[in-house]
Design goal:
Blueprint (H helix, E strand, L loop, with lengths): L2 H10 L3 E5 L3 E6 L4 E6 L6 H10 L6
Antiparallel strand pairs: 1-2, 2-3
């Protein structure tokens, strides 16, 4: 899955950018009070995308 598609999916479900790290971007779901790190790769494997969504309590892409 493309990184930009995953970021669009996260924002569509109420997650927002918390901060930019050195190698990761941190997104937070304030409703569920959860956060997750998204790597800066162009392609993110599907297993990792599902794990990020699970960490943030949103549906899988």
């Amino acid at each position: 899955m493309k990184r930009r598609d995953l970021l669009r999916h996260l924002e569509k479900h109420g997650c927002e950018l918390l901060r930019e790290g050195g190698n990761h971007t941190i997104y937070v779901n304030r409703r569920a009070q959860k956060s997750s790190a998204i790597p800066r790769h162009r392609e993110i494997i599907d297993f990792l995308a599902r794990k990020i969504c699970k960490d943030l309590d949103i549906p899988d892409p």
